[in-house]
Amino acid sequence: MWTNREKALYKGLGGIIRERRGSTMSQERLAFLIGLTRTSVSNIEAGRQRMLLGTLTAIAKALGTSGSALLRRAER
User: Fold this and answer.
1) How far is it, in rounded angstroms, from Cα 63 to Cα 67?
2) How far from 19 is each of 27, 38, 63, 66, CA to CA, in Å?
3) 7 contact partners, CB below 8 Å, separation of at least 6
4) pTM of the prediction?
5) Do residues 72 and 13 lie in contact, with contact meaning Cβ atoms separated by under 8 Å?
6) pLDDT at 2
7) Which end of the chain is more exposed for a tag (fewer CB within 10 A), N or C?
8) What is the pLDDT of residue 59?
9) Can you say whether residue 64 is alpha, beta or left, with left for phi > 0 and alpha for psi between -120 and 50 degrees?
């Protein structure tokens, strides 16, 4: 079971990922680049799916940023 803080973190992080991806990259393209399904990317962006540190790092790299930068923004 997720705590409210965890829910907020994953929802915030997902929104930041969606924002970074913008309209220039589809969920399908991001999924291909990181080796996940489009459904997983959709769930991550909606804050419904937890992700491993390696997944966060792969997403960040595909979006041209770092995992730590994404987390810093999500923790605000």
Assistant:
1) 10
2) 12, 16, 10, 15
3) 47
4) 0.93
5) no
6) 86
7) N
8) 98
9) left
**Are 69 and 19 in contact, with CB atoms under 8 Å apart?**
no
Rounded to an integer, what distance in angstroms lies between the CA atom of residue 71 and that of residue 1? 21
Cα distance between residue 46 and residue 18, in whole Å: 9
Angle between helix axes 27-34 and 53-62 (nearest 10 degrees) is: 120
The residue type of 30 is L
CATH code: domain 4-75 is: 1.10.260.40
11 in Cβ contact with 18 (< 8 Å): no
What is the model's pLDDT at position 73?
92
